Structures are given as C-alpha cells and as structure tokens.
Amino acid sequence: MAGSVYGKLFAVSTWGESHGKALGVVVDGCPAGLELTESDVQRMLDRRKPGQSQFTTARKEGDEVQILSGVFEGKTTGTPISMMVWNKDQRSRDYGQIAYSYRPGHADYTFDQKYGIRDYRGGGRSSGRETIGRVAGGAVAMKILKELGIEVYAYTKSIGPVQIDPAKFNKEEILNNKMYMPDVDAAKEAEEYLKTKIHEQDSSGGIIECIVKNMPAGIGDTVFDKLDANLAKAIMSIGAVKGFEIGDGFAVAESTGSVNNDEFDLDADGHVIKKTNHAGGILGGMSDGSDIIIRAAIKPTPSISREQHTITKDGKKTDMVIHGRHDPIIVPRAVVVVEAMTAITIVDLLFSNMASRMDYVKTIYNL
Amino acid sequence: MAGSVYGKLFAVSTWGESHGKALGVVVDGCPAGLELTESDVQRMLDRRKPGQSQFTTARKEGDEVQILSGVFEGKTTGTPISMMVWNKDQRSRDYGQIAYSYRPGHADYTFDQKYGIRDYRGGGRSSGRETIGRVAGGAVAMKILKELGIEVYAYTKSIGPVQIDPAKFNKEEILNNKMYMPDVDAAKEAEEYLKTKIHEQDSSGGIIECIVKNMPAGIGDTVFDKLDANLAKAIMSIGAVKGFEIGDGFAVAESTGSVNNDEFDLDADGHVIKKTNHAGGILGGMSDGSDIIIRAAIKPTPSISREQHTITKDGKKTDMVIHGRHDPIIVPRAVVVVEAMTAITIVDLLFSNMASRMDYVKTIYNL
Amino acid sequence: MAGSVYGKLFAVSTWGESHGKALGVVVDGCPAGLELTESDVQRMLDRRKPGQSQFTTARKEGDEVQILSGVFEGKTTGTPISMMVWNKDQRSRDYGQIAYSYRPGHADYTFDQKYGIRDYRGGGRSSGRETIGRVAGGAVAMKILKELGIEVYAYTKSIGPVQIDPAKFNKEEILNNKMYMPDVDAAKEAEEYLKTKIHEQDSSGGIIECIVKNMPAGIGDTVFDKLDANLAKAIMSIGAVKGFEIGDGFAVAESTGSVNNDEFDLDADGHVIKKTNHAGGILGGMSDGSDIIIRAAIKPTPSISREQHTITKDGKKTDMVIHGRHDPIIVPRAVVVVEAMTAITIVDLLFSNMASRMDYVKTIYNL
Amino acid sequence: MAGSVYGKLFAVSTWGESHGKALGVVVDGCPAGLELTESDVQRMLDRRKPGQSQFTTARKEGDEVQILSGVFEGKTTGTPISMMVWNKDQRSRDYGQIAYSYRPGHADYTFDQKYGIRDYRGGGRSSGRETIGRVAGGAVAMKILKELGIEVYAYTKSIGPVQIDPAKFNKEEILNNKMYMPDVDAAKEAEEYLKTKIHEQDSSGGIIECIVKNMPAGIGDTVFDKLDANLAKAIMSIGAVKGFEIGDGFAVAESTGSVNNDEFDLDADGHVIKKTNHAGGILGGMSDGSDIIIRAAIKPTPSISREQHTITKDGKKTDMVIHGRHDPIIVPRAVVVVEAMTAITIVDLLFSNMASRMDYVKTIYNL
Is the minimum CB–CB distance between D268 and chain A shorter than 8 Å? Predict the structure, then answer.
C-alpha cells in the first residue's frame, strides 16, 4: 500500500529492515541550490545511534551515511537525494523463539496478520532502525528550515514520573546529558529511575516535547491538511508513540474559553503577538506566528527481560523471555526522530503554501 | 494546496462556507453495489444539527441532504457521490467588527495571513458548518463498515471536570441525552456545569472517546501510514481538537513495560486475544483485532460573550464582544464528526490493504 | 478508486451522470485573490453545449453554472470552489435495449465488468456530459493562466480527410465556425463531408491541436512528472481520444537527429530562442519557452444509426439500432475540453514548480 | 516537486544520475509472498545494457543489481524493496563544453532554467541511465503480472522508414536480434539503415509497440484515471518519446464509426469477444479483455557527431561537436523500458481496482 512514502512536494521514501543489508531513504522534492554534505546528515543520525551508555543498546553500529545522488559540487540539484547506511552488525544468532512466537507489545502478531510472512530478525521493518531513513530525510528538511531561519528542537520532557522543571529549563543542556533533558537535575533523577527499572527487568515510558521557533504565520490548511493534523500523523507514525497534543493539549478539556483563548496584542514594534500561547502556535489549522509546541507520549520499551506469556505462530500458549540487552527507555533516542518528522512536515507544508495566493504565484513568475 | 481532499482510495472532497450558498462533499471511490439512501446520510447529519437545546446554537437549519450523483436504483454505482445541503438561514446582519477584527481563539487572523482575503461571515470555511461534508462522507463510510460488520461509535467522555463513570457505562444511553454521554448521571451533572458556564458568559472543553469494534487484524501500515497515525490526522483535522491518544495514551508515559505490554492469549475457541488492551487495538501501526479506542481533547468554544482584547486587521488594539448566542460547549456536536472521520479513515485503509498479499490479489482475479 | 480526482496542488474533483440530477466539480487549491465570476465559467461551458447546429445533438441544455463556494465579493478565497449545473432535459424514455445490451464502441460492457452495475441512462458517467466538470474546472485554470500572461487555445485540425491549410491559418476564425477550425474553407469542406456521413448513417473522427503561448521555461519534471507526460494523461483521459503527440509527434520516427534537433539561438534582444520547434516546446520533460504544440486523435462517434451486432448483458447475440439523433463528429465539442485539461495540467505544474529552487522559497518567505 | 515517484498503491521512487555514485529504485507496495530474486531483475536490466553491438554505446557497464530490503528467504515481505546498481564506469574526462553549452535536443537548457544548477556529467538525471530504476521496478511488476497470468511484451515496430511486416511476425525472434524486432528481415534492413546513419554522423527515430495479453476486463477508471490515460503518462514519461497511441491510434481520425466500432460477439465457449480490436483493448478507459496494443514514437538520438549551432550558459552563440560514441538509435534499448512502465501502470491499477465492488471487499474480509 506504499505506506513508506511520506510528503506531497517534499517526499521521503524510506526502506530497510533491522537485519537486512542496509537501510535508507530517497528524498524527492528538495529544492536545488541547498548546500548539503554527508556530515549534515551524520550529525543528526549520530543522535539516534545506540551504544553510548548503559541506557541504550550495546549494539555497535557505525551507521555512516552515504549520499548517493542529488548533490553535485556540494549543492542539491533538485533531483532525488538517495542516502544509505549499511547494516554492519549482523551477528548470526538463533532467532528461534522470536521467529515463531509473538512478543507482547511488538508488531510481530499484526505483521503476520497483515502480510502472512515476516522478517523476524530484530523486528524487521518494525525495528527502531527503521527511523534511520526518517532522520536522514529529516536532516535535509532541517537544513532547509535553517536557511529560512526556522528552528526545530525537541527534548525529553519526562521519563516515568520524573519531569523537567520549567524553572530550570536550559536549552544548551539538552545535548549534554544522555536523557536529552533541558534540566540537568531532572536528567540525573531520571537516570536513577531508569537504573531501578533495569534492576526490576522493566522499562519506562516518557514524554517528548518539540518546539518550532520563527514559524511564519499562515502555514497549513483550514480543513483536512491542518498543520497540527499533519504533525499529528507525522509524530504518531513514529513507533511507540501513543498520544499527541499541541499547546495545552488534553488540559483544554478542563479549561474554559475565557482562559484558553489567546488574546491578540501588538508588541513594541507594532507586530501582532498573542498574550498567551495556549493554542501552541496554530489556530484553525494554520500557524499563527508564535512558537509551535507539541508533545508525544512514548510507551515503555516492550522488550523486557521478564518472562511473559504469549502465543506461538501456530496458536499455542507459551512463555517467552526476550534475551539480549534492551534499552529500558525509548524516549531519548526518539527525540531526534520527533525533530526529523516535524521538520519534514513543516517543509512540505511551507512548499504547498507557496501557491496559496495569486500574488505569490505572480512573484515567482516575475509578473 | 488542495487541503480539502482526504483519502487515497476512498476520497472525500468537501466544500462550502458557513454563509455561502451551500455546503457539500464529493465521495470518490465508494465501491459499487452499496445500498445508499438520503436517509442514511440524513440520520448522521441530524446528530450534528444545532438548535436542539439551550446548549446548542439557536440557528434553525434544515440541512436536508440531497444525493446528486453516484447512486442508481438505490445502489452506488462506483462513480462519485455528490451530496449537498443548501444554506437556508442566511439572515443578513452586520458583520462589522468581525469583518475587520480578529476573534481570539478563532482562525480569523491566520486565515488573513495565509490568504490575504477572508469570507468573515460566520467564520467562512473555518465554521463548524464545514463538518457537514465530513459527516455526509462519513455516513457513506459507516454504511460500508456496517456491511463488513465493523461498528464505530463515539461519545462524550468528559465535559469540563465531569467525567463519565465506567461502572455506569450504558451504550444505549448515548443518543438519549443532549450531552451524548453513555452515563445518564454524568450527563445531568454536565448540563448543570454548562449552565454555570453560560451564566459566567464562558464555555467548556471536554473529551470524546471513539470505539471501533470487530476490526479485522492487520489493517494499517508499518511505517508512515500506521492506522493510528492516520486516525490522528483525521481526528486532529477536526476544528478545536488539541490532542489525540490511543489506548492508554498519555498515561503510558508513567507506565512500565511489564504493565503496559498486553500479553497474548487464546479464547475458548482458540482465537488469539489479548489479556489487556493498553495498546488500544493497534500494534506497530496495524490493528490487532481488539477494540480500537481513541480519544480527542476538544477546546472550549472560543466564541464567548465576555469582552475580549484583540487587534484589528489594520493593526490597532481593540476590544470586542461576540454577539449572538453561542454553544457553551463544542463536544456533543463533534461526537458524530469523530465517528465520521474515524470511519472514512478505516475504510480507506481497509481498501488499501486489499493488495497487501499476493494471495488476496489472486483471489480477486480468480487465479 | 477515486479516479475522478485530478491534480496535486490544483485539484479538480468532478461528479455527475448524464441523466442524474446534476453534474459538477470541486476545484481545490485555487489561489486566493483571483477575480472569478460565473460568466467566466459559463463562457467556456457554452462552447461545449450541444444544440447549436445540425452537427451536434438536438438536446436542449441550459447548463447554467452556479458557483456555490470559494468566491467572496468577486474574488477567490483559497477555499474549494464548488460549481454545478442541473440536468434539466431528462425526458423519460425507454432505455430498454441500452439497459441490457452493449453498444459497440461504448463503455457499457467494460462498466459492467468493472462495477457489476451500471447507470445506463445516456451513458451515465461515461457520457460526454461528464466533461462539464472538466470545462468548469478548466475555466478557473484558464483565468489563472490569463493572469500570468499564458495563453491556451485549441482548434480542429482535421475532420476525416479534411485538414486545415497552414497557409490559411486564422486564429480569429476558430470560434466563428461550427467546426472550430482556424481555416474557413476547410470548415466548409468539413461540413460537407459530415453531411455525407449523416446521410450514410455514419460518423467521422478527427484531430484537435492545442497551443500554449508564453509558457515560462523550466516547468515540468525530469522523470515521471514530465510536462508532456502529464499533458498526455490529461488529454488521453478525455473520452474518445486514441492518440496524443507533441511537436512533430509520430513523424519523429522517420526523422533524423540532424533534422529533429532544434538548435538554440539568440533573438535580437539576446533572449534564448530555438531556430525550429520540432520538440513542440518541451525538452527532457520541461518547457523550453517556445510554444507548446500538442495533438489529440479523436475517434468517430460510436453512436451511429446503422444496425450493429452485439451481445446482451446475459450473453446472447443481438442486433441493435441506436435511436435518437447523434453528433456525426465529436471533435468540435471536444476542442474546449482539450483546452480545459491542458490549462488544469499546466496550472498544477506551475504551482508544483514554485518550490524547485531555494531562492524561490526564500523569495516567498521574505528571506 | 517529487516528480521521481510514480504510482499510488504500487509506487516506484527512482533516483540517481548518469555519473553519480549509483542509481536505484525503491518499490513500495509490492504484495507479500511474491518470489523474487536478483536474477529476476537482472534479466530485465540486461536488456537495456549498452555495449552489445555497434549500434549501442561502447561504455562497459556491469549494472549488477542488488536487492537491499523487502525480500526475506526468497519472498517479498510487503515492505519496500530497495534495489541499486553502482556506477562503475566513471572515467574522468573533460566535460568542458557540455558544462557550459546547451546541446540541441537535450534537457541541458531546460534543466538550468528549472533548477539554476545542473549535474552536466553524462546528462545527469536526464541520462538514459535514469531508466535503470524504472526497469528494476518494472521487473517486480512483471513478476506480479506473470503470477496473474498477464503477459506484457514490447518490440521495435519501425526504425526510420523500415517497418516490420505483420506477415512475418515472430514473437520468438524479438530477443534474438539487436533491433528487438519480431521480423528478422526487417531487423537486417534496419541494421543496414542505421549503418548509413552512422556514416552520415546522424541518427534515427522509430516506433515501439507493446502488447498486454490476458488482461482482465474492467481495469481502469471512467474519468481521469482511465487505463489508457495512465499508460499514456507512463510511456510519455520515458525520455525521447514524442507520441503515444492505442489501437488504431491516429488512424481513427480518418476512420468512420461503422468501421471503427468493434462489434461484440461470443466465442465457441460463450465468452464475450470483440470481432475486431480497433480500440486496442480499452473502452471508456477500462480494459475490455482483448489485447491491449499501444505504440510509442521515439525521436532520433539527439547526440550526433555533426557540428551543431547552439548557445552557452552565459548567452553567447557557439558551435559544438558532441564527442564520444553515441547510439544512432534509442529504440532497441527503450523496448524494455516500455515494458517496465506498462507493467508498473497495470499493476497499480489492478490493485486500485480491488475495492471497486462491495462483493470484492467482502470476499477479502471473509464476509
């Protein structure tokens, strides 16, 4: 059903399985004239790379990206950009039980139901490694947004019961701790919490928040292609995400109009601003020029070392223990994926928006 | 940017403004051979009709739907189904301030930013009346699902602080009270709460929950076109929705793998079941055969009678009072819209899924 | 399969059957700020209207178009433009044989094969009246192109053996004769030829040529979305078209590179021109700035009064005579449809092209 | 503008430049359970490989395809199939004049107009090597069609003035001669003709014909997504194609209804057949069950050794001679590309068609 292609004018087509030969992405619709190097992409890919701490899987992955097309003399040419990472760490092992039993919380059962066949090695297409293509594509989108002065950054907002303290928010801290939290104290607390989860052969969920700064107003559509609707799809399409919200999100359910409405005002320079931002930067599906603020709820890693009850492919009850070392938390590695999907979505809508007015069209065609 | 078209194989294209001549939808991709009458559609449309109580706007709307094409001798022919509702209640009034001032919490400002021009009468395309096309299209989708034995129903889960009590859940009650709550006591309590909001010239938010029963397993895709990702877009595209979640949703952030994983089991007949349904019926983007459970957070009606501060189109500060009678709550009227968007999304993915296996393809082509 | 929606950024969704209640189109993605009136659309619709001469069907059709949405105070607002024409002339008649027999050269048999059900009245969705939606949508596209200084016009190049004489080409003449030929002598000759066909209870084919003037260079894509590829789909999607060519078209098969290559040159003002235009204005899928020249081959009207052999729905041999008065030629009424489809296609690609370069993107977002 | 993605349910996303690192394709939407090996793909790729005769370029290309994803234990899994060919023969050379001058008949000028930047090495993305991705994707589609009993084959119908003789048609001969002609005598004659063109430093055009046998009836749509309209886009998207026709094609312009209509009949087994096939297997946009017969007109190779006049990038007149050895004819190498694009298009429409009737939908979902 061609469900690995995303985007209308800026389209990413990802491919690859956890233990196949390679993984990658084709980015079609990148404008010509953008400076792009492999290190632009590698920098983002490295942020999702495991093997960096006791909280992430031990698997050593080089994950060195190659750009195979679409770039000439350091600049994009407007043709498809194909990027690829070889799978190097394919230790042969016995996939025995995983091959014929369904891990709770994983896509094994549903994959078999849909396709009747399944590459069970490391989760196949439903592995976290699937996000390599997303992040590589997102790196191109991030470069475009940077050229337009738009900034996208995400961070861990909570891990289990440990939440960041808004008063201690320090953006510079995000990439300095393994939790990707903008609050160093919360990060330490979260590490302690995760140690207990490891000890208990258990795992933890958490929340990622993503901010878009300097967003032009008026991007997105009024009906189905609302900016927030597209962001919701983009974020919910990331594995393990179970909820999405914008601005005050679910809290609006207990709010009132007099509180929730953001009144318009003028700043010192006479620019339109909002006094508050309960809306999270989007009104009626279109950006309003204030910060876009979205959140994703991430479920606990389903791979835990405890014995679990399940069934086999041929319909028999069984117990299974998932061997190997597993992250007790998905959140930190997913932070960069949230950024990537947000960037891809915004770029696509920025491009679609360019034909929304006759005067824009005339400007481009010099008329 | 063609943002009023939704769906790939089952596509709805909606049109119309609040105070324009008419509103409608073209449904393209409905299979041939489905029995369909105007009353099938009218029944769903009537559930979003205002004017039924003190909690909904007083505007009298007939909203009688006409099917203009695609049905012959009571059955769909496979060609586009065009459906339309005339706008009857277009009392001429002075739109003065709304025409040149931006209502807080509305799309007035962003609409002007995007298009540079705006049909300000009644909110234009950003009016709640825009959902007429969605609901009419959804009625066709619901009829298809019914033929397949799949049931979709939504209800009000909470209004402000008033939540339904799971112990009192009675599905039959939903359409019996104006709150569309499956708990008659909560409904009464919610009515009382809304009366206080009306008295305070204020409004309330709430939560809608939607259930899909008898869903076949394996529907949805593993990467971008995950079933839950598409549902998120569908639901977040409804005006006033600020959050979406599935299963345990945001609660997973504080859960652990050992609790959140749903173990597989067999029922008495040897069918695969899950012991719990924290996942809300979708694993790895594909339906797992258990109930799909989704929720939408709806913001309080932004039109309130209190004086609010805002700015005018030409950048001057002003105060405004939104005259007329307004619903103190959006939730009850949005329940049927959530059902409609859910049904449209599921039908589209059911159709896309038909070519997911070579044996399905061979079956259809008798090979 | 949603096959009545066409276009990516400028999308038309047509609907309606020959003898249904109405026919129409929803145009989604029209930029805001375009002046548009019903008479802009009516003017084009009138050119496809029958009942004007002995060579076109006698059916009286008002076909007065209504714009139901998307236009406010004479300008487009950027929201979907819904346009509709009521079916007035639905004389009740006995469709007996057509209902259960398959007319040679018509879609009756294939429609039944695809859908298993068929609205047989007047050809249903496969009627020439289906083009009403195309032409109304095309009228909007033509208005956009006019604003950009791009001109699209088509005409009859040949009817049966009667060809226009390039030496007598007079563009002003096109709309002056019922054949829509730019050569008044050829038009007279064609009328005589058609009279013989009517007398013989037969019909004639012909060729339509379409020119696009002042096309900006660089529109279209290098691979699948070549401008000529999209034009080919657009034109071949018109009923009765059996061939499409651009520039020298099929004649290139017997040409040589030294003749067929168009050498580049400079005009007096130093602008790039081509010395010849064998390519028909498109090189490598992208417009080269010279005139786009395309042609469509139209088959003879399949409805002829002679007795024909065929089969019935339940698989029995039969003879049939198609009663009523039929055009002996499709070509003249299809001229405006070719213009419409050409205009829609070019507008869609002009819009898609706006994000092809980083400097274009920066221009729109004032950076 | 994402113009390198083609297909709705069976989508191919191609990438790569003539002298970049590699070329390839991602095929998304291939059903699970199809047996697929690299040799299935290599066999088709080898037919477009140059270096086989004096009539094709001398460049040695291994073009060994690798399947990087989507296949497990010899069968497709339903996930994207990524296929790639490394560019091995990247002899460094002086691209001097090509880098700053526009070759007549090539996309150099239009590429610069669209993107403002161009990978001039070997034509970049507009090279014939771009078809590697199409053919690899087409090989997957051909395998699917084979499983369904549908056969697609193309051949050279004419080269310059040399046409095949229908009386000598021998399908087995097609792959036996370098011209890919089903008539060995015509093939010899064509070789002689091409020798004269080489001697004259010139090139020749020609016509390719493609046949689809055992096509089920009812595939394609009645309006925009007509089967022939989609085939037209697919074929016209191949570089150098200047015309497309189906059945009698342009000859219908001089035909009459009484001749052109194909009467329906019954064969000895009572199956519906047509007495003739002027329509080329498609009526009203849908397959009628008889052979689909389409033709493409291919222009002469634009790279010729003669001196040609043109202009430089900075707008100066110049003369240029295109060095190196060039095919005097594109036709034979394009035969397999026509097959590939035909197969991809038919597979995509076969899949879309599966939801055209409620009874099909019910069959798949066992209801």
Answer: no
Q: How far is C356 from chain A (nearest CA, A)?
A: 5
Question: In terms of C-beta density within 10 A (0-12 exposed, 13-18 middle, 19 or more buried), how is residue A156 classed?
Answer: buried
Q: What CA–CA distance (Å, rounded) separates D40 from B136? A: 47
CA A174 to chain centre: 16
List of chain D residues whose C-beta atoms are within 8 Å of the C-beta of residue C266: 311, 315, 317
Token couple for A42: 């590698």
Which of the four pLDDT bands, split at 50, 70 and 90, describes residue B51? very low
pLDDT value for D51 = 45
The CA angle B342-B346-B351, to the nearest 5 degrees, is 155
Average pLDDT estimate for C323-349: 94
- Of all residues in chain C, the percent with pLDDT exceeding 90 is 88
Chains with at least 3 CB pairs less than 8 angstroms from chain C: A, B, D
pTM beyond 0.90: yes
Could you list the beta-strand ranges (E) of chain A.
Answer: 5-6, 11-16, 22-28, 66-67, 71-72, 75-76, 81-86, 151-159, 162-163, 206-213, 241-246, 264-266, 272-274, 282-283, 286-287, 292-298, 308-311, 317-320
Q: How close, in Å, is residue B236 to chain D by CA atoms?
A: 24
Query: Looking at residues D254-259, what average pLDDT do you find?
Result: 98
Q: Considering only alpha carbons, which residue of chain B is nearest residue C86?
A: B68
Work out the average pLDDT over D242-254: 98
Scanning B301-360 for CB atoms below 8 A from C yields: none
pLDDT value at residue C90: 61
Euclidean distance between CA atoms A183 and A179, whole angstroms? 10
ipTM over 0.85: yes
Written as one letter, the residue type at D143 is K
Closest among A103, C362, D93 to B274, alpha carbons compared: A103
Tokens linked to B164? 């339904």
- The maximal CA–CA distance of chain B, rounded, in angstroms, is 71
Q: Do C117 and B13 touch (CB under 8 A)?
A: no
- Report helix, strand or coil for D316: coil
Q: Which of A31, C266, C293, C145 is nearest to D109 (CA)?
A: C266
Q: Does B362 touch chain C (CB under 8 A)?
A: no
Pair B338, B247: CB distance under 8 Å = no
Give contacts of A231 with chain B, Cβ < 8 Å. Answer: 236
A147 with C362: Cβ contact below 8 A: yes
- For D14, the closest chain A residue by CA position comes to A80
Tokens of D187: 């093939």
